[in-house]
Amino acid sequence: QVQLVESGGGLVHPGGSLRLSCAASTFALDYYTIAWFRQAPGKEREGVSCIVSSDGSTYYADSVKGRFTISRDNAENTVYLQMNSLKPEDTAVYYCAGAFFRPQTGIGSEYEYDSWGQGTQVTVSS
Questions:
Q1: CA-CA 20 to 30 A from 92: which of 15, 38, 47, 74?
Q2: What is the pLDDT of residues 51-85, one digit of tens each?
Q3: Rounded to whole angstroms, what are the CA distances from 108 to 27, 33, 121?
Q4: Half-sphere exposure of 18 (CA within 13 A, CB side)
């Protein structure tokens, strides 16, 4: 398993931007498919985006398409989630997760990921 550490969360006004980082230790991130999940209070964890190790393909949940961008910096061994035009409904704890194998479809289920970070809080509020 790869150890993952998220950072970059915080409080932002609606329409604002944040960039989350997912830094890895013990293994090179480009061997892993890395995804971002989020969980709001009282709701199930949902997949937000992922970047596939083998070919760099990216996938997004419909709710964030056109607003969020996932990217990978192999030199920094870090995956980023750039979040623009944030909405109050984006408020959640955001987790990055790693999987050695490509998810069966798109972002995949949380159960397909075996390495998880501790989470970072994102709050969008005026």
A1: 74
A2: 998 888 999 999 999 999 999 998 999 999 999 99
A3: 22, 10, 22
A4: 21
